[in-house]
Structure to design on (157 residues):
């Protein structure tokens, strides 16, 4: 009897990206391999901070009237997720520490009216100071996307 392999590819996970990993950003996720699959645009409640050439987002520190952070959702393989961890400065060989700039967080966003569990990279609170706070939720209002403007279609709120 032939042996059937039970090795199945790991399921794809979803990532919410809001800064340089967005399409047109300096670390554009669509240029990485293995390729990510675009799912859609989304908004996430939080506070956006400008940290020079890149942003950081905190899930706390926002008011009820503050605009949500605009981002994109992609389905990614485990291999690509490891690359994203490296880009975001997470050390793969040790557990997250208080010295890390970012921490990986699980969130749920809505794309096309459907809730999608995602991970995202949240900036450490020590970088989230009032002088760096952006009073809007779109990193591309701060930097011009590579290759010119990118149209973002957002679902109605």
């Amino acid at each position: 009897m032939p042996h059937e392999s039970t090795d199945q590819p790991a399921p794809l996970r979803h990532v919410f990206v809001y800064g340089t990993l967005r399409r047109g950003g300096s670390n554009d996720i669509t240029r990485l391999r293995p390729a990510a699959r675009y799912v859609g645009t989304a908004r996430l409640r939080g506070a956006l901070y400008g940290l020079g050439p890149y942003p950081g987002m905190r899930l706390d520190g926002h008011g009820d009237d503050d605009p949500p952070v605009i981002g994109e959702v992609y389905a990614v393989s485990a291999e690509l997720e490891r690359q994203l961890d490296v880009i975001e400065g997470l050390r793969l060989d040790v557990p997250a520490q208080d010295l890390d700039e970012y921490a990986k967080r699980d969130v749920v966003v809505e794309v096309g009216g459907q809730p999608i569990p995602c991970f995202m990279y949240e900036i450490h609170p020590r970088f989230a100071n009032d002088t760096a706070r952006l009073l809007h939720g779109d990193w591309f209002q701060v930097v011009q996307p590579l290759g010119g403007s990118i149209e973002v279609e957002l679902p109605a709120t």
Remarks:
- The chain has one helix and eight strands.
- The helical segments are 78-87.
- The CA atoms of residues 41 and 152 lie 7 Å apart.
